[in-house]
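re: ur question from earlier - yeah i can do the single chain one, its not a big deal. heres the input i used so u can compare w yours
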Amino acid sequence: MSSITADPSILSSKRAIYVGGLAKGVNPQILRAAMIPFGNIKSLDIPMNYSEGTHRGFGFVEFEDAEDASEAIFNMDGADLMGRTISVDMAQANQLSKLSNTRTQAIWSSDEWFQQHASGEMTAEEKEKLNQQNEDQTELRN
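and the output i got, formated as tokens:
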């Protein structure tokens, strides 16, 4: 699956939204549950601060339809999610810089990243994300 922020055509399609002000307890499942009422979610990304082991307080949600993204913005901007007021807006290219701590070096250029990901096995997080997507698709079909 491609990352929302890795493909500039997604940003220009008006299907991707930025969700800021996330509480520390928010995980991908909670953010998905908050956004699924507005339409089919194609992908969801909450960037992590790996040095602290927590997310960075914001996320991106890509809907299958631009109208669904607009509805999510209209309904969720300024809403309360787990005790915090969230800001929801259309994702913009300048928000991409928030994802990268090292702007000059590719993530896979370190031996540590390569050893972790070269095995071809999925991490527990990747398996959970795949299972969640399958569950969402099953739920939408019913």
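The beta strands are 16-20, 41-45, 48-49, 54-55, 58-63, 80-81, 84-85, 87-90. not sure if urs matches, ping me
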